[in-house]
Design brief:
Blueprint (H helix, E strand, L loop, with lengths): L5 E2 L18 E2 L4 H7 L7 H12 E2 L8 H16 L2 E7 L6 E7 L5 E2 L9 E4 L5 E4 L4 H10 L6 H9 L6 H9 L3 H13 L3 E2 L2 E5 L6 E5 L11 H8 L4
Antiparallel strand pairs: 1-2, 2-3, 4-5, 6-9, 7-8, 10-11
């Protein structure tokens, strides 16, 4: 059976990718060859294992260049198209304060997209008066961050340093960031928050106990990558 690759509209609109045509990016649902890696994903190896999978399922762009927002969108797309579009989530109703389990349709999640006028590097003036240029973080940046964190506890500063676009060495930026005013650091973080793009994990539901509308933030779940336990049996075990 030949691979069936489909077009995908990434929330970044491919704006951060130089020379990439959005119409050229295609994706396929998971296959058995991908399950080999997906089944091994855990919080420690997630970055590397999922990157291996992305190299199999994405065409038209080097997966390492993908923004973290686009990667998250792809993760949810694959969950919907490869496994399940409805997930069960346990939560506490804020009206009746009872523990309930609700079904959330992932297809109904809103998707935040980058504004059409976004450009990177993005010029920012820090509260201290310093002018810097910033970029969105990519999977490649996260791979480097993971390696850095194995021998340093300054991963947060490394993340900010990788956000800054200039010719200065990352380690020198980390030295500078150590002494930056907290307001400057907060401004860099605000850039990433402002230009978040990807699925909005805030979902609405009707409480099965009091029948009032409520909302919850869907937590990150490893079974988005590969269903196991109750998620597996609820989704695929009904006919067994």
């Amino acid at each position: 059976m030949s691979d069936c690759f489909l077009p995908i509209n990434l929330p970044s609109k491919c704006i951060p990718y130089e020379g990439i045509n959005p119409d050229d990016i295609t994706i396929r649902a998971y296959q058995g060859r991908d399950a080999i890696f997906l089944a091994e994903i855990n919080p420690v190896n997630l970055v590397q294992k999922f990157l291996l999978v992305l190299k199999n399922v994405i065409r038209g762009i080097n997966p390492e260049d993908l923004t973290l927002g686009d990667r998250f969108y792809i993760m949810i797309w694959e969950c919907i198209n490869s496994y399940m579009d409805v997930v069960k989530v346990s939560t506490t109703c804020t009206h009746c304060f009872k523990e309930v389990e609700v079904s959330i349709d992932l297809k109904e999640l809103k998707v935040t997209k980058l504004p059409d006028d976004f450009k990177q590097p993005y010029k920012v003036k820090l509260p201290s008066g310093k002018d810097i240029k910033l970029k969105l973080l990519s999977i490649k940046d996260e791979v480097e961050l993971e390696k850095f964190e194995k021998h340093s506890d300054e991963g947060l500063l490394f993340r900010y340093a990788k956000s800054i676009v200039d010719d200065q060495d990352v380690l020198k930026w980390i030295e500078e960031l150590r002494n930056m005013p907290a307001k400057d650091i907060a401004t860099i973080e605000a850039f990433h928050e402002k230009f978040y793009h990807g699925p909005d994990m805030l979902a609405h539901f009707i409480c099965p106990k009091c029948e009032r509308e409520d909302e919850l933030t869907i937590p990150f779940r490893l079974d988005f990558f590969f269903p196991f336990g109750r998620t597996l049996t609820d989704t695929f075990g009904k006919g067994i």
